[in-house]
Amino acid sequence: MKIYYLSATGNSLAAARSLARELDEDVTLVSFRSIRLLPEIETEDTAVGFIFPVYFADVPREFLACIRKMKFRQKTYLFAIATCNGVPGTTLRTLSGALEQKGAHLSAAFSLDMPGNALITPQATSDKRLNEFPGRLSQIARMIAHREQTSFPGIPVREALRSAAVRAIGPRFVVNPRKFHTVETACVGCGLCARVCPASNIIISNNRPRWDSNCIHCLACFHWCPKQAIHIGGLLSDRPRYHHPEVSLSDLC
Ligand SMILES: Cc1cc2nc3c(=O)[nH]c(=O)nc-3n(C[C@H](O)[C@H](O)[C@H](O)COP(=O)(O)O)c2cc1C
Ligand code: SF4
Ligand code: SF4
């Protein structure tokens, strides 16, 4: 089995690792950063999973672009886990539709509530989600081990409209890479932000980061800067930094 994952603050990587541990089969984890520039991604595996965060009530655009480049064997069991902060929106539908367009079928798909890395999750809710995580993962693992199918209930019109609004507003007003900047006195020029960026979008020049134009909005740079020197403006400026307790910086670089 192959699991393709994208993770900035570790929630999705923790889910991918836990799943791999629970399954009684060979599982290879493949990161977004290692495949993002490949012209074509071919897989011979009979089961393939996608584990990624929800961005703006949908699949991260660049992760979806990778999935569009994939070629699967006929009858491959395809599954997905979208980690999110309680609002998966149209994510699983989008993924299912994209795979159908390729003649493939998403057999099982789950959304998994985790602590949010964009909007703040109240501490009690974060703790509850982290406590429930192992049990929920075991449940999902059992279904995947048995190659079970899940159904895709239709998205109510109100939810679809809400997702569309989040997509329209979020990239401009909530996470807008053009507003990223460092506090000059706090930044020590260590370059960790550039190393952790899964899209190689940060260039260190004169010991300071400069953001290029290929940002995927993941917020890894913001959360992992050891000096909390990166600020992103707007709604999220003052939010505390977060990463999944079982994931460290070196797991993502
Ligand atoms: C740019 C951005 C947009 C997000 N949009 C949503 C969203 O629409 N709905 C939601 O429930 N969570 C949203 N989140 C929260 C993440 O999906 C969630 O925290 C995820 O588990 C992070 O995964 P990671 O730790 O593997 O990076 C967003 C996060 C980011 C960075
Ligand atoms: S990780 Fe933080 S301190 Fe290090 S170079 Fe980037 S902004 Fe500066
Ligand atoms: S610049 Fe920051 S937010 Fe943008 S892709 Fe890189 S790490 Fe993620």
Describe this structure in words.
With 253 residues, the protein is an alpha/beta fold. It contains nine helices and eleven strands. The protein has helices at 11-22, 32-35, 61-68, 91-101, 123-145, 157-174, 192-196, 220-224, 249-252; strands at residues 2-5, 28-31, 41-42, 47-53, 70-71, 77-84, 106-113, 181-182, 202-205, 208-211, 230-231. It has a five-stranded parallel sheet with strand order 2-1-4-6-7, sandwiched between helices. Strands 3-5 form a two-stranded parallel sheet. Strand 1 (2-5), helix 1 and strand 2 form a beta-alpha-beta unit. Helix 1 (11-22) packs parallel to helix 5 (123-145). The longest helix has 23 residues, at 123-145. Flavin mononucleotide binds at residues 7-13, 53-57, 83-89, 114, 116-118, 166, 170, 175, 217-219, 244. It comes from Enterocloster lavalensis. It holds the Pfam family Fer4_9. GO terms for molecular function: iron-sulfur cluster binding; metal ion binding.
What is the share of helical residues? 25-40%
Unreliably modeled segments:
none
CATH-defined fold name of the largest domain: Rossmann fold
* Architecture per CATH nomenclature, i.e. the level-2 architecture of the largest domain: 3-Layer(aba) Sandwich
- Indicate how many domains the architecture comprises: 2
GO molecular function, one term: metal ion binding
Domain 4Fe-4S ferredoxin-type: 178-207, 208-235
Keywords: Iron, Iron-sulfur, Metal-binding
Pfam families: Fer4_9 (PF13187)
Chain-wise SSE layout:
Blueprint: E1 2-5, H1 11-22, E2 28-31, H2 32-35, E3 41-42, E4 47-53, H3 61-68, E5 70-71, E6 77-84, H4 91-101, E7 106-113, H5 123-145, H6 157-174, E8 181-182, H7 192-196, E9 202-205, E10 208-211, H8 220-224, E11 230-231, H9 249-252
Parallel strand pairs: 1-2, 1-4, 3-5, 4-6, 6-7
Antiparallel strand pairs: 8-11, 9-10
Helix pairs in contact: 1-5
The chain binds flavin mononucleotide (FMN) and iron/sulfur cluster (2 copies).
